[in-house]
Amino acid sequence: MEKIITKAFPMYNPIGEEEAQAAAAVVRTGILSDFLGKHSEKFGGGKNVLELEKNWAEYHHVKHAISFNSATTALLAGLGALEVCPGDEVLVIGYSMCISATAPLFYGAIPVFVDIEEDYYCMDPVKIEDKITPRTKAILPVDLFGQSSDMVKINAIAKKYNLKVLSDTSHAPGCRYHEGFAGTFADVGVYSLNQHKIIHCGEGGIAVTNDDEIALRLQLIRNHAEAVVDDMGYYNLTNMVGGNYRMTETEAAIAIEQLKKLPALIESRINLANYLSEKLSKLEYLTVPKVRENAEHVYYLYPLRYDEDKAGLCREQYVENIRKLGIPLYRLAGGYIKPLYLEPIFSKKEQLKHGYPYRLLKDNEQPNYSRGICPVTEKFYDKEFIVTAYTYPPLTKSDMDDIVKVFDKAATMR
User: Fold this and answer.
1) Per-residue model confidence as pLDDT tens for the chain (414 residues)
2) N or C: which terminus of the chain has fewer CB atoms within 10 Å of its end residue's CB?
3) Considering only CA atoms, which of 309, 310, 335, 334 is closest in space to residue 321?
4) Is 31 exposed, middle or buried (0-12, 13-18, 19+ CB in 10 A)?
C-alpha cells in the first residue's frame, strides 16, 4: 500500500532564539530562582517571575496572576485557596488529565463526576445540579481541547448554591470567551506551561483571580504558608500548609518570551483548524469541532467524532488505516483517554488504606465510580472520538489537504 504522507510532520516547537537568550541571561546572573520561604521582599519571587505575572495578568485582563512550577500544583493551590476541606465534594469531569479529578483527594475531598457536553465536550451545565449535595463545595470544569466551558451557566449554578469555581484552562491560554478570556470567569483559573502546551517553559503553570485574598492564599500555599502567616499577620489558617510550588527565574524568563508569541500561535492554529474543518466536514462520517457561541477555540487538540455506521468500518480499523497511509501514531488517538473514574484510584477505592477520604461519608453517601455514570464520555471513548493534534505551525494548508486525503481514503480500505 502506498502511503499518502511519506514524511513525518515536524514536531511542534514554539521555542526560538529569543527564549534561548532570555534563559542564558538568567544563567549568567547565577540566580536561577529568587524566592525565600519567609515574609520578605523575596516571598513573591524574583524579577522574571514578577514580570511574567504582571504580563500574564495584563494580557488576560485579570487582577492577579500567580506563577507555579506546574499547572498541577496550581490546581492544588487553587482548591486550597478556595478552602476545600476533608469531606467536601468537588464536581469534576472524567475526560481530562488525571489531576483535574484527583486534585480534591489531596485535601481529603471527594471527586464527583459530571458528564460532558455532546457538542463542545466540556462539563455539561445541564447535568451539574443533579450532582450537587449539601457537601458540595466547588466545581472544577475543564476547558477541554482549547475552548472555554460554558462559564455563564456554570457561574449561575455556582451562585445559586454558593459554590466556588476553579477552572482548569490548561488547554486554552489566550482563548477569547465573551468579553474576556477563558479561565478568567472562575474564582480561580489555571493555565499550563508544560512542554506539550501551546506555549511553554518546560514545566510551569499560572493561576489567575480577581480576588485579593484568594491571590494571597495562592501565594502562601505556593511558598511555605505555615512559615509565613504569623509574620504576615494572616489568621485564616485553613489549608495554610504550603509547599514549594515555585517557578524558577529561568522558566519565567522563557515564559515571558513565549507569551509574546501567543497571539500569532493562536491565529495560526485557528486558521489551520478552520481550513481543515471546512474540508473534513464534507466527509459524512466525521463531525468536526464545534465552536461555542460568542467564543473562540484555540485548538490545543483537534477532536473529531467518527460514525462507524456511516463509514461502514469500525473505528479501530479506520484508525489503523490512517496509520498505514502515513499519519504517525503519536498524532492520532482513538478514544482520547480512558474515563478517569475507571482508573484504579477511583474504581478500586476500597483498596485505599483506612478508606480515606471515603470513610468520612456514610455508606449511602458514597460516590459512584462505575461504568455508566457518564454515558456521553463513555460513548466518545468507546466508539466515536479520534483526537488529533495537526493544527499547529509550521504545518500548512497543503499539509491539511494531505490529512483530508488520508481521512477520506482510510474509509475505503477494507
Assistant:
1) 688 998 889 999 999 999 999 999 999 999 999 999 999 999 999 999 999 999 999 999 999 999 999 999 999 999 999 999 999 999 999 999 999 999 999 999 999 999 999 999 999 999 999 999 999 999 999 999 999 999 999 999 999 999 999 999 999 999 999 999 999 999 999 999 999 999 999 999 999 999 999 999 999 999 999 999 999 999 999 999 999 999 999 999 999 999 999 999 999 999 999 999 999 999 999 999 999 999 999 999 999 999 999 999 999 999 999 999 999 766 667 789 999 999 999 999 999 989 999 999 999 999 999 999 999 999 999 999 999 999 999 999 999 999 999 999 999 998
2) C
3) 334
4) middle
How far is Cα 213 from Cα 59, in angstroms, rounded to an integer? 21
How many other C-beta atoms are found inside a 10 Å radius of the C-beta of residue 227?
15
Element (H, E) at 139: strand 136-139
- Is the distance from CB of 209 to CB of 215 less than 8 angstroms? yes
| Angle, CA of 29, 35 and 41, to the nearest 5° | 100
Q: Check whether the bond before 357 is cis (ω within 30° of 0).
A: yes
Q: Which residue has the cell 462507524?
A: 308
Domain boundaries defined on the chain: 17-258
Give the SS3 label for residue 337: coil
Written as nine digits, the cell of 159 is: 451562585
Q: Which residues contact 64 (CB under 8 A, 6 or more apart)?
A: 53, 57, 208, 209, 210, 211, 212, 214, 215, 218
- Find out if CATH 3.40.640.10 is the number for domain 17-258: yes
